[in-house]
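FIELD: query
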Amino acid sequence: MPQLDGVLVLNKPSGPTSARCVAAIKRLGQKKIGHAGTLDPLASGVLLVLLGQATKLSGHLQGDGGKVYSGTLRLGQTTDTWDSEGTVTAEAAWEHVREEDVRREIAAWRDLTEQPVPPYSAAKHRGQPLYKLARKGIAAPAKVKRIQISQAETLMASLPLVRFRVACSSGTYIRSLAHSLGMRLGCGAVLTELTREYSHPFGLDAACDLAAVTADPGLLPVAVRPIAEALPGWRKVELTPEEAARVRNGTAVPCRKPESPADGAEDAACALLLEQGNALALARREATPADPCWIVVRGLWN
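FIELD: result
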């Protein structure tokens, strides 16, 4: 199969790593491939697989929008990985915890601005992933990262099991939320199940199953979303053939006279330049001695 350009919205199953899922798609002839936003092996749900020129979008996709997860945690246990796949390091009674306590603490996630990074994670210390250091028994300094939680709700509380949904900034560790909740309740908690329902700008309704695509590779070209669809918040500028040639040559393209006041707004800092409906480049609007121009930030051509 020829190399495709675009985004495959994959419904990752629980079990395999994100890298293993990407490798399965790579075997379908997609040598230029990557993904935006790793999912732990335990987790299932939306995994954005980037093909061809879309591999250049990873930073933009992870920075432009948030994610939504639903999951289950279990009270009364602590593991080294902060989820149920790790080694149990402590157990404690949970019977003193009330349902209202759990609901209050989950709602309080919305007030968090930072969280501890799990010791078993892909975050790095001196160039080495923390999980590799942890497996070798090498202690690394505790890391903290900034997060933003816009939604946090309890879906079901049948203690010691709790189901929840959370909307958060990219890079938030849901295992860390569960672990910290257990610490605050004084009994420990581990994440036992997790589904990513949404990864900007795609939800599960747009996702296809890994098994289906690998069993019938002919589904892949139909399932791949255009690059422009992956950046819905960006301005779209259709280029003439002459303008497209200038972009390919690395030359600035003068901004056309705005059709409305909003088109010329100063906060319209980014654009997705299109050639016959296909994404050609990411650009920013920049003032020049003559007129404002589109300056290419990232070319999307070979």
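FIELD: remark
The chain has three domains: 6-65+201-229, 68-193, 234-299.
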